[in-house]
Amino acid sequence: MRERIRARQDTKVTVVRRRQRRNNDEEATSGAWKVAFADFTLAMMALFMVLWIVQPLGLSSDEAPEAATPYATTPIEGGQGIFEGSSRIPEEFAELRVPVLLDELPGRLERADVQGRYDAPAELAQLADLLERVAAELDAVANVEIDVVPQGLRILIKDDDERYMFERSSAILHPHFEGLLRTLGDVLKDIENKLIISGHTDATAYPEGVAYDNWNLSADRALRARRELVHAGFSLDSVLQVTAQADIMPVRPDDPTHGANRRVELLILTASAEQLYRELFGETYTQVHYSDSSVELLPNGAPDLP
Question: For residue 76, is it within any domain?
Fold first, then answer.
């Protein structure tokens, strides 16, 4: 019995523990893919921001934000990039919108009588009434103000609560206003009155050192408005002047950066206003002929003296 106990005590038990090892694929993919994915995402985000920052470097601020959203009463203009709501309609898609012309309006407004010259206040008021009905058909009542003034008929085209006329700091025209201008051109193309087009901005200045400023911007916008009128059939000779006003003629002088100051104005001249304009700018001014013996006044267009 003692020998059995001693034999058991002398016997050693060996315990073998087996650990399950991960294969190479599991070790390689346990967390490394997360790092790679994070790097890729960071790189794409950096590229995205660079593209949006670099694109508007040639432009600058001419109008500052006045509300929390880009669709406020005074639409912001002059920011840099999408994070400030710089664009609601990409330029490449804007051309896909076909402007509505007068013949396509639901009410088929008659324009057979919109011809000849409009000089008397009653005649101008009648024309203003027609243009207001055109604006209503185009859902543009908030974008148009029409007034009979001593010089003729003033048509003010502006932003509204939901749409701004131009992409900020540029002359890129919103399709809604493109259709509005072309329809106005279609209505007015047969009148004999001359037209002056003026562009206006607010008082927010471009950064110092930028060659382009509010004078350039207001000129480009006025020229773009002229192009749309001519495209609709308005005669080239009917546009007497295209002028840049920058921010020197605000409609809200108490708030020079207000969005209402950003506008394009069309002034339909009476015959007397046109004559005064021609006298001021040289077409009918009096010429002076000098000779050794005398000084003689000549009306413009008179034959030159020998």
Answer: no
